[in-house]
Amino acid sequence: MAEVVHRNLELMLPELEELERSGIFSPQEIKEIVRRRRGMEYKLQRRPVRREDFLRAITYELNLDRLRKVRKKRLGVTSARRDADYGIQDRVHSLFKRAVKRFKADVRLWLQYIDFCRKSRHHVTLGKILARAIALHPNKPGLWVMAGKFQFEDQNDPSSGRSTMQQGLRSNPSSTHLWLEYFRMELMHVDKMKKRRLMLGLEKSEDEELEKLGAEFFSYEIPSIVFQQAVKAVPNNVQFLVSFIDIYRLFERSEQRQEEVYSCLRRDYSHLADCWEALARRHWTNIDTTTLTEVSSIEEVVEGCYREGLGVTVQPSSLWRHYLKWCREVTENEGTDSTQLRVGPIYFV
Q: Where is the secretion signal located (predicted)?
């Protein structure tokens, strides 16, 4: 054990010598760093090693690196050698690698390593770590989402991002989180291509067939297909369907596709209270941008939707709660009892 600890400390000498030479740390501080690292190394070499020992060592190194950066900036040090600038980060990587090798089943540890790689912008290492984590934990949708986003956003590779998401869905077909993030990624891809096309001035193609394909793509045809597949994979989940509407609303000119989701809700889930809550609330979404005259008209539409639902749903008590909650919102915003007066006759029928 002592030989291993001694060898590991020797590997740190170039970094420590450079930190002392540049004046970032004093000789006394270097001695204290060596003492602390030696103690932590002995703990990491013992059997059985504990996860907490790795985390404690990693935390110490991260705090030490923050102090190094602050002092370097304050002293105006411009280090030419890599050892001083990246030695501590290399040690953190080494500690994380040893930790995840020892505790492969600890997903939280993998996530911490992934987060460190992202913050330190070590994209090459991050890609490898994500691949290893997924191989060990294919049933964790969050890891697939991270990998897909990394390829799509950081690597600017939509094809690989899509492939990763689809592979994740094959392993986790009922994951609502994975379906929604894949759906969001396809929408972002369309939006990105729209902006690129506009920037390049390619508003219309002379090739009619190509223009038709482009029109389908830019009208969110692919996200719509993803939505249809998601509904089949995760049936009987009204809130899941409503989540697609919320995501659609983040993108321009998606009203037609939102209608598809509402139609699906009315067709397949009209017996559920949450369905009518979503159908009624759709008219109330942009209420802040309407005039007082329009508000009164919208209130009547929303009320009519609740009335219709109460005559169809098998969950009237739940729908009543939604309805009365909306009424309270209206009276609080307007300071009027007009809506409560309209509710009265219905409530006592």
A: none
